[in-house]
Specification:
The complex is a heterodimer of chains A (291) and B (319). Chain A is an all-alpha fold. Chain A has helices at residues 3-33, 40-56, 61-84, 92-113, 139-161, 163-173, 175-180, 185-211, 218-232, 237-258, 263-277, and strands spanning 130-132, 135-137. The relative contact order of chain A is 0.21. In chain B, helix 3 runs parallel beside helix 5, helix 3 crosses helix 10 (203-229) and helix 7 packs across helix 8. Chain B is globular and about 55 Å long. Classes of the chains: A mainly alpha (291), B mainly alpha (319). At the A-B interface, helix 4, helix 9 and helix 11 of A face helix 4, helix 5, helix 11 and helix 13 of B.
């Protein structure tokens, strides 16, 4: 593979890892509640922006990052408690509008509390590129990929090895049955909002040194993450991760080889094609409905 | 209270409201804002057939608005076509595109149409932004003034009348559709696709019909918008516009024609009101959207009608 293609692959994997984490957040909340949370991109933005501003106030960056994750989780839980839980039982369209309202609100609040500028964070291991098969790779890329991998591994262990994780899986499989065996499904939905917020914030912190952040980066991330989740098959965590990486790669190669002004279009073109020919997504099961 | 259920009450209410606003309006500014409300109201009425009656979400409807708007902006200077003919071409293109996308996608369940329209809307937006040689790019382009019978159409009053008439015609068509077998089929499949299927309703076909109709409404609104403003930018086709359109429908009331226009009035007029709050504008918009959806989850008009017509059965609002 030529050095140029390697370069595209690495930049694709980096943004793809962020899309994958956003898609994973979508999947968690969708599985627990059936809600498509369009404020998912705002969690990513909040992670980056809060770290920048807490750091600027003199707090050491690692601590600032932890605080930022905690604050984002708190906002995620508030969103669930104040908006989603109070609107329980409303239909899907209404819930989508509520989460879109929440994303506009969070963007507006960030604009007021922080500012409208672009901000960067220093890269964790400096800016000297590593040479891999002729391609120059930023050390931060390794952090993003490693971070995404750790999130997937920890999440998998949590789901498979802990009782609460199993309760999340049970709720996703069948909400009424989960309730019948004594699982507090409302709390599980809250938990999934908290975890999704944490995952989003972490992705935002890790990728800010490469892509910068500002109050309005969340919208496009949410759209691509949603598209990635659908590409992988809505509701399937493995599909979400693979879908995210694929969307990132398609974008990088499309921009590099075909046309960079249409960078954002490639992902959506592929998704339209998937919908036409592979409606359940790459990893989705064919939906069979019981009557 | 039976009169409240007549299908043709909605166009009548809208026509009366348009006359009343005209009588009360004290400035051209009010008339211009009202014309914008009518234009977006027309798009919202169409989208409501898809969202409210057929129960499908479109997250890219502004794309159709954009097709209509750019048809009257691009075609007349390029081909010498009369703006009205150009508008008809735009509406036709939007309808055919909706058919091409809707037919395969609407056979699927769940949020497939939401994703497909999301992608379609963004593709249209990107094409309008990037093909600057044709569309003027992100800065937008001027639209030739509309001339009818040798007269240039201008002035707030003329446009108020044109947009009001378009809105009432749109409402009339939507009302007849609602009262027709197609309207009943749509509501049936919204309630239960399986039940509708057993009753002989071709679910995918009727959903596609609703999608095409809503696209035609949106493109017509786009045509009016471009001619009214005399200028178009790719933002008409942007994601935010699509979201605003869906919000108009859901906020005003799903399935309600008057509701769609009330929603359009709120979303169109709100930024004018919220400029008072300056930098808090987006926060307030988000808050209003969330609060309205949590408090009045059937939408403003149906919730109010329910209070009016069923004073003793308010508890039924839980579904």
């Amino acid at each position: 593979m030529s050095a140029e293609l390697m370069q595209f692959a690495f930049s694709g994997l980096t943004v793809g890892a962020v899309y994958a984490l956003v898609a994973l957040g979508f999947t968690l909340i969708y599985n627990a509640s059936g809600v498509i949370n369009f404020a998912q991109g705002e969690f990513v933005m909040l992670g980056g922006m809060t770290t920048v501003f807490i750091g600027a106030a003199g707090v050491p960056l690692p601590l600032a990052a932890i605080l930022a994750v905690a604050i984002t989780v708190l906002i995620g839980l508030l969103l669930w408690a104040l908006a989603i839980e109070t609107a329980r039982g409303a239909n899907a369209v209404t819930l989508i509008i509520i989460t879109i309202g929440a994303s506009i609100f969070l963007r507006g609040a960030t604009e007021v509390v922080f500012d409208k500028q672009f901000h960067a964070l220093p890269a964790i291991s400096g800016d000297d590129p590593i040479r891999v098969a002729g391609a120059a790779v930023l050390p931060q890329t390794v952090w993003v990929l490693g971070g995404a991998l750790s999130v997937v591994v920890v999440l998998y262990a949590f789901m498979e090895r802990t009782l609460i994780g199993k309760a999340v899986i049970a709720t996703a499989a069948n909400r009424i049955a989960a309730k019948l065996v004594g699982i507090n499904t409302a709390l599980i939905v809250g938990l999934s909002f908290g975890i999704s917020a944490a995952i989003g914030a972490l992705a935002g912190i890790l990728v800010t040194p490469i892509t910068l952040t500002s109050y309005d980066v969340g919208t496009l991330l949410a759209l691509k993450g949603f598209a990635a989740a659908m590409l992988g098959g809505m509701g399937n965590p493995v599909g979400a991760v693979v879908g995210g990486l694929l969307v990132g790669l398609i974008e990088a190669f499309g921009a590099g080889l075909i046309s960079s002004p249409y960078k954002d279009a490639f992902a959506f073109l592929v998704i339209l094609a998937v919908l036409f020919f592979l409606p359940a997504g790459l990893f989705g099961r064919k939906s069979v409905e019981r009557v | 209270m039976r009169a409240l259920r007549s299908p043709f009450l909605a166009p009548l209410v809208l026509a009366l409201a348009a006359v009343a606003v005209y009588a009360l309006a004290d400035s051209n500014f009010v008339l211009r804002v009202a014309s914008l409300v009518f234009i977006f109201g027309l798009a919202a009425i169409g989208l409501n057939i898809l969202v409210g009656d057929a129960g499908q979400v479109s997250l890219g409807h502004a794309g159709f608005l954009g097709i209509g708007a750019y048809a009257v902006a691009v075609l007349p200077p390029q081909t010498g076509l009369h703006p009205l003919l150009a508008g008809i071409v735009g509406v036709g293109v939007a309808g055919v595109l909706a058919l091409a996308v809707g037919r395969p996608v609407l056979r699927l369940k769940g949020h497939a149409l939401a994703v497909a329209t999301l992608g379609l809307g963004i593709l249209i937006f990107m094409a309008l932004t990037n093909e600057a040689w044709l569309t003027g790019g992100p800065d937008g382009m001027r639209v030739e003034r509309l001339t009818l019978f040798g007269e240039r159409i201008r002035g707030a009053t003329n446009w108020y009348v044109i947009t009001a008439v378009a809105l009432v015609i749109g409402a009339l068509i939507a009302a007849s559709l609602k009262a027709s077998p197609t309207g009943r089929a749509l509501r049936a499949l919204h309630d239960s696709e399986i039940a509708a299927l057993t009753a002989g309703v071709d679910v995918a076909r009727y959903k596609t019909i609703a999608f095409v109709i809503s696209a035609v409404y949106a493109a017509s609104a786009g045509v009016l918008l471009a001619l009214f403003e005399g200028f178009v930018t790719p933002d008409v086709a942007g994601f935010l516009t699509s979201i605003e359109l869906v919000t108009m429908v859901v906020l005003g009331g799903m399935g309600s024609i008057v509701g769609a226009v009330v929603g359009a009035a709120i979303i169109t007029a709100l930024p004018q009101v919220l400029t008072v709050f300056q930098e808090y504008e987006h926060m307030m918009l988000g808050l209003v959207m969330m609060a309205a959806m949590i408090g009045l989850r059937r939408g403003i008009v149906p919730s109010l009608l329910l209070l009016l017509t069923l004073p003793g059965r308010r508890g039924r609002d839980k579904r």
